[in-house]
Structure formats: C-alpha cells, structure tokens
Amino acid sequence: MGASGDNDSVKVSRPGRGVESFMNTNGSYDWTRDSAGMYYLRAAQEAGVSPIAFFVNAIPAALTAAKTPSGTDLGVDSIAPFVDYINRVLSYWTSKGVRIDYISPMNEPNNNFADAGQEGMSVATTARAFVYQLLRPVLQSSSSSPAVTSIKVLGDETSQVTSQALVEYPTWLPTTLQNSAIDAIAVHMYDWPDNATLLNYRQLVINTSLPNAPPPLKMTEISTFKSALGIYRPFGWTGPKIFGPGYDPSIDSALDMARLIYIDNNYTNTKDYNYYLPKRFWVFRRFRKFYRPGAVRYNIPNKILPYGIMAVAALGVNKAWSTTFINRNETKQVIKIKVPKVDLKMLAAVQTTQTEDWKSLALRVVGQDGIFSATLPAKGVLTLQFAAEDPASLAGRRRRRTWQERKRRI
Q1: Pairing with 67, which of 53, 112, 289, 391 sits 20 to 30 Å away (CA)?
Q2: What pTM was estimated for this model as a whole?
Q3: pLDDT-derived band of residue 342, with 50, 70 and 90 as boundaries?
Q4: Ramachandran region of residue 258, left (φ > 0), alpha (ψ -120 to 50) or beta?
C-alpha cells in the first residue's frame, strides 16, 4: 500500500520507490490507482500463491500535514485516521474478491526517509503499540466486508535486530501481545545478526509472550551479503566479491535479482518488445528444482573452499543431497568432494556459465571411498545431486504403499 498521492508537495526521487496510494492528495479515494500492483496481486492469487499480505509503506500523503509520502513521524493524533484508511482499503479489495491473509501497517519505523528517496514514516515505540491495539478491533468489527475480520496482523518490520529489535521490543511488544493485537512478528536483518544474537532475539520474544506461546517469527527483508572471505560490512565489500560488478549488497541488488525476466529498457526506440531470461533466472532455477521446502541446509565454511568459491549444501525431504558451487574465478577450478555416504549415486549435474544457461553434464560414478573430483566452470555455477536411489522411485513407492494401506482399510 503506497503513500504517494496524485498532487503531493514532495515526490519520491528514486524510480520504483514511490507507489500510488489509493487515496489522492485531496483525501478522496481512487481504486484505479496502483493498477499494476493489483494486477500482479490478482495473478498471484489465481496462481494459488499463499499467504498474501498487504504491506504499508507509510501513511498516505493526504493524511500528513505536509502532504508528503515520506519524512513523516506518525503522531498519536494521526493513528485513528491512518487505521481507518487501512480498514477502508482492505474492505474494498476483499469485497472485490481479493484474498488478504496479513496486513503489515508499518515499514522500518525507525526511519522516516526524510530525503524522499523512498516512501516512509517513523513510528515511536510507544506509538507502535497504539497502532496495533487500535487496528485489531477495527478489523474485527468491520461490517463493510466480512473477510476483513479474519485478516491477521503482522509487524513491526524493524530493520535491524541488534540495535533496534532487542532494544525496542520491550517497549511496545508486551502490551501488544497481552491484548492479542498481533498475530506474527516480522523483522528485517540489515545488520546480518549472528546465531547468538538470533537466539537472544528468539528468547526475548518467548519471554515476552509468557504464559502464552510466542507468535511466529518471520524474516521479511534482507539484501546484504558476506564477501567470499566471510567478512561483513554494511553496504560495502571488504573482500573478494561473490557477485560481479553489476551487483552490490544493497536493496538495489535485491530488486534487480527479483527481475528474473529482462526487457529492453530502450524498447520505445529499438521496438524490441521481447522478453528474455537473464543468467540470474537460471541460477535461481536450481534453487527451485533442487532445494525444496523442508530441506535442511548444511554449512560449508568458506575457509575449506578454494579462493573465490562459495558452496551451498542441503539434504531434502526426498533423502537427496544437493550441492551448489559458485565459482567467481576467471579460470576453472578442480575440487575434491566427499559424499556423506559411499552408497550415494549422482542423479544430476547442471552448470550455468556465460555461454550456457542450463547444461546437463554426464553423471560421474562415485568411488568406493566416496571421493571424486569435480571441475567448476570459470565464472559459473555447478549443482550436483546425490541419493541412494532416484527420489522419483522413492516417491512412487510411497504412493503405492499409501494406496495399498487404503485398500486394506477399505
């Protein structure tokens, strides 16, 4: 849910960071605005995507004194009209058949983005509790659309765990949980917290929730990466890059990575209206194909890998091991791999390079000691999959056993 009206005093300066609000600058509603966003939302719903969340960037410019979509500090007096706006938007779209599972009423409330680089509003920690405590009963008592009463509340989209969530949660979260005003907690991880910090964060939520069970924790944003040396610095590299010069660890990179289909930005002149699949599509395809929900990731430390190489390994619910190697070097690299069990067979080997999108390689035979050599292509990605037997055969046997059990019960 954007904050930008049709005649604001200040406009968001960065392309793509301003989203049309359903409220014009004069306070009237226009449901034809953000038509592109609603088109893709409906397409996602038709494709069975779940859950669907409405995410509020900031209070609409029309409800601010300066008529601006950014640089606002949400005051207590503005909470009621802000919540009413949210309720009206949710009521309208649910009445039109749009399924909405969650509403997240604020984004990174520590920052009002006063430079107008993107939409934003700051919300004081004490005011956050008021937002949730007012939003919940308003939704539950909504009469304009019955579907609104079942929408869950998500928050508060804090941008960092260490300096913000751990410090600020004790101010607003206890009262919010006691009043059952929030269903799930959302946090961003722009400080790249380590395991110890995340355990402390989780324990804080558990302790705050007592005597009740804690709400689900959801990490909803991150766009920073570690260097190949495992050293982290916000918005800058301190070691060899994992990604090429066209990428960086900021949100710009995340937005670029999300564009898995490429178009010619100069199409008005070139008349090239075709769609293209860039290399990032083929890299992401392997994570969809080989790393399925429920898989357990196993750590491969950078220090045991050759310079400029990164690896990801996981054991799927289908008992297949999948390992992906990313080689940033300009030359091929030969590495030795030891599989967890000697009876594993290679089921798939796929590589992506500058000249190859999705090339299936000849399957290698694993030696009796479980060790074999693999050649990583220069500036490429190689994925290998191993299992004691083909997961498809295993799944087929499971289906047959299930059918036989049903026949016995019948």
Answers
A1: 53
A2: 0.64
A3: low
A4: alpha
Element (H, E) at 352: strand 345-352
At 116-167, the pLDDT tens digits run 999 999 999 999 999 999 999 999 988 778 899 999 999 899 999 999 999 9
Give the residue ranges of DSSP H helices in 331-390. Answer: none
Please, where are the H alpha helices in 47-149?
76-95, 125-140
Smallest CA-to-CA distance from 347 within 362, 369, 325 is with: 362
d(CA 118, CA 33): 18
Please list the helix, strand and coil fractions of the chain in percent, rounded to the nearest 5, in that order: 35, 20, 45
How far is residue 1's CA from residue 117's CA, in Å, rounded to a whole number? Answer: 17
Identify each DSSP E strand in 105-253 by its residue range: 121-122, 152-158, 184-188, 217-221
* Encoded amino acid at 181, one letter: A
What is the rounded CA–CA span in Å between residue 281 and residue 284? 5
Q: Which residue has the tokens 């997240």?
A: 104
Give the residue among 165, 198, 150, 157 at the shortest CA–CA distance from 51. 150
The token pair at 198 is 């995340």
Cα separation, 104 vs 125, in Å, equals 16
Asked whether 262 and 273 are in contact (CB, 8 A), the reply is no
- The CA–CA distances, whole Å, from 269 to 32, 199, 283, 371 equal 29, 54, 30, 55
- The phi, psi pair for 124, rounded to 5°, reads -60, 150
Identify the pLDDT of residue 244: 36
The backbone torsions φ and ψ at residue 92, rounded to the nearest 5 degrees and listed phi first, read -65, -50
Provide the strand spans (E) within 173-214.
184-188
| pLDDT tens for each residue of 244-255 | 333 344 444 444
User: How far apart are the C-alpha atoms of 228 and 215, rounded to whole Å?
Assistant: 35
Q: CB-hemisphere CA count at 13 Å for 369?
A: 5
